[in-house]
Amino acid sequence: MDFRLTSRFGYICLFTMFFAVTGIVAGVETWINANPAAVAFGDSLVVNCSTTCATEPTIVIEGIRDNHPKSGAQWKTHSSSSIQSWATRVTCAVLCLPNGSVTNRQTMTVYNRELNITSPPEVLEINKTYSLECTGPRVYPNNKLILTWLRGSEIIQSNSTGEPGLPDEDNRLRNVFSFTASTSDDRQEYTCLAEVDLGSNTTKPIANSSVTLQTYYKPTGTIVSANNKSISESPVHFSNGDSIILICDSQGNPQPTLKWDYPQKSNIVINPSGVLHISDATAENNGIYKCTAANKLGADEKNVYIKVKGIVAGVETWINANPAAVAFGDSLVVNCSTTCATEPTIVIEGIRDNHPKSGAQWKTHSSSSIQSWATRVTCAVLCLPNDLVTNRQTMTVYNRELNITSPPEVLEINKTYSLECTGPRVYPNNKLILTWLRGSEIVQSNSTGEPGLPDEDNRLRNVFSFTASTSDDRQEYTCLAEVDLGSNTTKPIANSSVTLQTYYKPTGTIISANNKSISESPVHFSNGDSIILICDSQGNPQPTLKWDYPQKSNIVINPSGVLHISDATAENNGIYKCTAANKLGADEKNVYIKVKDITAIIAAASVTVVATFALATGAIIYYLYRNAQKTGEYKLRNAKPNNNPQVPNENEYQ
To answer: Order of strands, edge to edge, in the sheet holding 298-308?
Structure first.
């Protein structure tokens, strides 16, 4: 076979060799853009593959079949009118001549819109725990789905799974929100929202469903106001001839009906809305006015003592206790004082004292140890000539016995747990407030509207339900018990805390290169660079790190898991995988390192110069060779005899 530079085949082989040497294409990138970014099963999808290659690239798209694709100089598009596979993985391969190949792959997020809520009973009971369960749509990869519960427009609980799952498995994500029903939940709308994660902190809502709760509860918090002023102490004093309007209000569902019990006098009327009106009040209207609020679940009542001033005008009486609320067994001092200036007679009942103290308008009884839960103090003042003023006050008595029933020692992420706090004994019962705090933040408070009976030990419970998250690890929860002193004032009497511990498998693993986070792969470096790869992952117990990478002598990993490539070359190109693992599972992150080979580029340039010189030399040789072939070859046309005597003829030459 002729392989000389003078043959056409020889030139072709030379160029082929040239192209084989210079096949490295630096800086070529390829992108996949899908519209929509996440697609519903059965909907249409358009995938575009584009590249920065400028040398007439060959673009191949796999995963989306299209018999009539569209294309341009540096892009190609495939369309599907209906996605019928959960495993839709798109591959974009670009052949960038002379022989560089770049491949990009993307798994499409495919979903349906089947979202279901398992709602609680039609009517909820106050202070009981219920759950709202939401089962999300089918989504692949599974970890692209986020399920969120909203109370109105407020986000109260979100969850997702870190596992992508398998495309042929229909593993639906569940979000169970547990709560203790309260009066504020009546007619409250809760919504379960399903979204898919598009990356870069962007989500796409794909489905939602709502449920409106209804709570039925017996009347509670019944109050009576007199002339538009709330009543905190009894009796309530009025002057002769006053117009007195008593309004009773109570919370309950169904709406409570109101009933009044009172001294029957001709100057008292009750209008259809339950407002009681005393016109031209006199001492005959003195007495107890009781409002009873009732519905089918029970009743609540409130008493108020109305006192219309008689002969001695302007006489008032007060009871002051120190402390305002007393621990069972502790000491108590009660003072009764009056504005009566006519040598009043003051009598204190409820606190026995053999050596009381007194002054012109006051009297004090002391007890070194309160031993009764039913401690009711009465202060009676006889103000001469004949007016008797009486005041009564039930003392708040408590102990400090507070108990927490804590969850398991170690909690599992995304599971629901309860913290139960049983408060101290307090009488009246409705003076106790139990509050759960997360750190210093109040997360749930409750109390009861029932005063109860002094000989009954009815302890208030506060059950706080929550879904464990990574932020709960080493989080302190405190149950605080307080007694209500009135006028928006409380007194702390006991507290207890528990610190949670959550174990969860590694998640959110990331790799940074030279202290810069990696968002796209490959990551380009230059020949001779020093490359430091740091892997970080969240998990409890603390994950251990393991690297899988091209084994080369210039790579070391220090004890903390930092991978160092010194004097990087093209031999270090490849996938570097970091696996973070603990006893609950593992998570991994890959990054493709690409080092530009400067030596190959210089070699390619050298070959180009040599080849150009060889071509030029060949052309010169070929030209000289053709001229040599012409030497001694002539054609005579119209030749004439030689008549020049200086030139020998043929015979003479011989």
So the answer is: 236-238, 298-308, 287-295, 257-261
Q: What does the block give as tokens for 5? A: 């530079």
Q: Is pLDDT above 70 for 259?
A: yes
Query: Which residue from 26, 50, 198 is spatially nearest to 111, judged by alpha carbons?
Result: 198
Which class would CATH give 317-397? Answer: mainly beta
The secondary structure of residue 361, as a DSSP letter, is: S
Pick the CATH number of 112-213 from 2.30.110.10, 3.30.2130.10, 2.60.40.10, 3.10.310.20: 2.60.40.10
β-bridge partners, 534: 512
Q: Is 250:220 a contact under the CB 8 Å cutoff?
A: yes
Residue 470: Cβ within 10 Å count: 14
Distance CA 427, CA 334 (A): 18
- Model pLDDT for residues 524-540, shown as the tens digit of each residue: 999 999 999 999 998 88
CA dihedral sign, ordered 552, 555, 556, 562: negative
Q: What is the mean pLDDT of residues 404-423?
A: 90
The fold adopted by the segment(s) 217-308 is Immunoglobulin-like (2.60.40)
Dist CA 444 CA 217 (whole Å): 19
Residues 6+ apart with CB under 8 A from 203: 146, 195, 196, 197
CA 454 to chain CA centroid, nearest Å: 45
Closest of 581, 474, 583, 591 to residue 538, by C-alpha: 581
pTM above 0.70, yes or no: no
**Range from 9-18, 380-389, 614-623 carrying the lowest mean pLDDT:** 9-18
List CB contacts of 200: < 8 A, sequence separation 6 or more: none
Q: Check if 399-500 and 505-598 are the same fold.
A: yes
What are the distances in angstroms from CA 570 to CA 44, 397, 525, 546?
A: 42, 81, 10, 23
Helix, strand, or coil here: 272? coil
Pull the structure tokens for residue 275: 């407002």
DSSP designation for 429: G
| Residue entry with tokens 């660079």 | 529
- Please tell me the class of the 8-110 domain: mainly beta
Give the three-state DSSP class for 427: strand
Phi and psi at residue 603, to the nearest 5°: -60, -40
Q: What is the pLDDT of residues 276-303, one digit of tens each?
A: 999 888 888 998 999 999 998 899 999 9
Amino acid at 513: A
Q: Where are the domains of the chain?
A: 8-110, 112-213, 217-308, 317-397, 399-500, 505-598
3-state secondary structure of 16: helix
pLDDT of the residue at 441: 94
Q: Which homologous superfamily does the CATH classification assign to the domain defined by 505-598?
A: Immunoglobulins (2.60.40.10)
Query: Which residues pair with residue 563 across a beta bridge?
Result: 533, 557
C-alpha to C-alpha distance for 182 and 253, rounded to whole angstroms:
11
pLDDT tens-place string over residues 196-244: 999 889 999 999 999 999 998 889 889 999 998 888 787 898 877 788 9
CATH T-level topology, domain 399-500: Immunoglobulin-like (2.60.40)
